[in-house]
Amino acid sequence: MPSTITTLHTYDTVYSADSVEWCPHNPYQQLFVCGTYQLDNKDESLTSNTSQTVRKGRILLFNFDSVENVLTNTQCIETSAILDQKWHPSNAMLSTVNASGDVVTFNLSSEEKLIQSDTLKVPNDSEGEQLALSIDWSLGGDKAAVSDSKGGISLISNAPDGMQCVNRWNAHSFEAWICAFDKTDQNVLYTGGDDILLCVYDIRCADAPMLRLKNKTHGAGVTSLLSLQTKEHLLVTGSYDDCIRLFDTRSMRFCVSETNLGGGVWRLKPNPSQPDQILCACMYHNFSIVSLNSDQSFSLDAEYDEHGSICYGCDWKYGLTEGNAKYFASCSFYDHKMCLAVLKTEK
């Protein structure tokens, strides 16, 4: 069935844009955030460490009225440069990780404004600055995992009296770009690093998580991980080597299938209404939409070429849509561009 993508809105984020997250919770599913990361020395590396590097950012909150097709920027929060954002799985709390090595949470007020609620500094076991690179919540929302630029992974408890770091360990030799809980087994945590390793940890051990596996299938750094709640034993990965791969987590020596999308794959986002359909941020190419087929192969549904710079952030809108329309937002770096588009598939 042919699919087409139409751009509905473009927005100049002023600062370089790298993260988009749409709120999954009612009655806030018309809201999404775009995070920015401004490098004043114009270095492409997100973890560049020179004396000239200044990292500042903003969190932009948007409201999208899909009925009237109106997009409004309702809030702008000045912050340290944003690397990743996630909404809590159980409530409308936004968590961000930034270039200062902090985890910062915000609650949505009744006026639909973000209000900062908590801040936690990720432990740094060595000298020099440390950036917090990614965050993921367990399905129950009682804990989060944070990866950092020193190759570390931190487990954060979501306690009533505030966030607490309960464990940190060195998982990778270089940047730990990504971490993700298994959505069907919350005792399992996946991590991916610039050392090309995909690691699997059992986090039930209180003293030190047990390393179950080091996978060396990828040809370059592992940058994105996707575990699907609807697909037990399956894990999708993205890498700087331009490929997405599917693994059966019961036997991960080799991948089940792989597809080259062109450009390093920075983010993977499943369509909430059709989890087998995945929105991929292919950094130096475009945003691509692929489907995971019944035979465990990937097929390309559509490509979105609206952006002229590094394609970093993307996410789908949650909730009911009109007809077969599927909305998503995407953003790119040096052209500081955020787009809102709609995917339509002919029946």
From TrEMBL:
Its EC number is 3.1.1.97. GO terms for molecular function: diphthine methylesterase activity. The keyword 4Fe-4S does not apply. One of its GO terms (biological process) is protein histidyl modification to diphthamide. It catalyses: diphthine methyl ester-[translation elongation factor 2] + H2O = diphthine-[translation elongation factor 2] + methanol + H(+). One of its GO terms (cellular component) is cytoplasm. Belongs to the DPH7 family. This is methylated diphthine methylhydrolase. The gene is 5566955.
